């Protein structure tokens, strides 16, 4: 996760979290919605960005998904160290917000020093592959307790897009034939750009509907990378355009002008992109989970 925008953005105050923290299958988890089974029998596992449950934005967005879909939405506390401190957002904004000059050299140098104790351990040990076995077990446990007819979706953002993508390649039970994930959505993904085959595997393994909200100006998974990924998918899937041909469904929607983090940490000027991406996710899950 080398993109500076991974650690930048706004703290949202447009809503208050309405869910609650519970222990779900042994993991501290934010639980949103799911109180009305008449609306939906399905669940969505929300795999967050690097700030995890420490950032209120993730809880607000989980509530938004739950309200729009009727699904129970779960954010397990699986990010390294419980997530980056929210104070990192302000420090990174200060560091990246203006060009280096003689006048601000010392303040910026001090900011770098205060960031290092958080950033260095995360860079060394924070890759989602490390807690992935825990995430996989959690997903299988959630799947196993769904009522008859219930489906399981997964949403992943930045850090969380890697495990969300990989979960699409897994069977519901080890060695089984049925898929674990019925629909996947991710926003401004990180890490998978270094493993482009992951997206092909995710779509091909169990024909899981796969959607992504792409920031046009992302330092990592931007409009150009999305186009190349889609072309790679078409080639690997025998020319399928992702519209259901051959049983494959996928979508890469590019948000013009958006930068990395817009699905979760959008600043005021980018809130329309934020709301549009939330609607994209809700429409996707309503189509494939309900």
From TrEMBL:
Residues 28-288 form the Dienelactone hydrolase domain. InterPro entries: AB_hydrolase_fold, Dienelactn_hydro. Gene3D superfamilies: alpha/beta hydrolase. GO terms for molecular function: hydrolase activity. SUPFAM superfamilies: alpha/beta-Hydrolases. It comes from the Eukaryota. It holds the Pfam family DLH. This is Dienelactone hydrolase domain-containing protein. The lineage of its organism: Eukaryota, Fungi, Dikarya, Ascomycota, Pezizomycotina.
């Amino acid at each position: 996760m080398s993109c500076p925008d991974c650690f930048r953005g706004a703290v949202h105050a447009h809503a208050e979290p309405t869910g609650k923290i519970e222990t779900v299958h042994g993991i501290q988890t934010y639980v949103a919605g799911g109180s009305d089974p008449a609306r939906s029998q399905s669940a969505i596992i929300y795999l967050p960005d690097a700030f995890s449950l420490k950032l209120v934005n993730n809880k607000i967005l989980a509530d938004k998904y739950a309200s729009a879909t009727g699904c129970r939405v779960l954010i397990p506390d699986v990010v390294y160290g419980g997530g980056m401190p929210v104070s990192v957002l302000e420090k990174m904004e200060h560091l990246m917000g203006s060009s280096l000059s003689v006048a601000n050299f010392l303040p910026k140098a001090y900011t770098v020093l205060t960031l290092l104790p958080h950033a260095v351990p995360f860079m060394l040990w924070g890759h989602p592959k490390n807690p992935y076995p825990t995430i996989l077990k959690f997903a299988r446990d959630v799947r196993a307790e769904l009522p008859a007819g219930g489906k399981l979706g997964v949403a992943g953002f930045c850090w969380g897009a890697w495990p969300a993508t990989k979960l699409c390649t897994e069977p519901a039970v080890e060695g089984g034939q049925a898929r674990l994930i019925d629909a996947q959505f991710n926003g401004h993904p990180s890490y998978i750009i270094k493993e482009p085959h992951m997206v092909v595997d995710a779509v091909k393994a169990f024909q899981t509907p796969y959607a992504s909200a792409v920031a046009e100006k992302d330092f990592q998974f931007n409009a150009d990378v999305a186009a190349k990924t889609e072309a790679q998918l078409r080639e690997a899937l025998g020319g399928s355009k992702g519209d259901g041909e051959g049983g494959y469904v996928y979508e890469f929607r590019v948000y013009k002008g958006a930068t990395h983090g817009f699905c979760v940490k959008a600043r005021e000027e980018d809130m329309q992109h934020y709301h549009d991406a939330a609607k994209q996710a809700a429409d996707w899950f309503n189509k494939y989970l309900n």
